[in-house]
Amino acid sequence: MKFGENGYAKFFFEDEDYEKFLKEIRELLTDKKLFIATQRTYINELKSKGEI
What we know:
By secondary structure, this protein is mostly helical. It has 2 helices and no strands. Helix content is 62%, strand content 0%.
């Protein structure tokens, strides 16, 4: 898995935004219900903006 704990997405410099993203995506990847709920919210936001 690309973003998993031992994933192949590697960075060799400090990036606070990327570290925050990794923490959040790893949490979502361990909790299927939270992942689905998060994606539904995101999709609904895009729909309400007319972006999809």
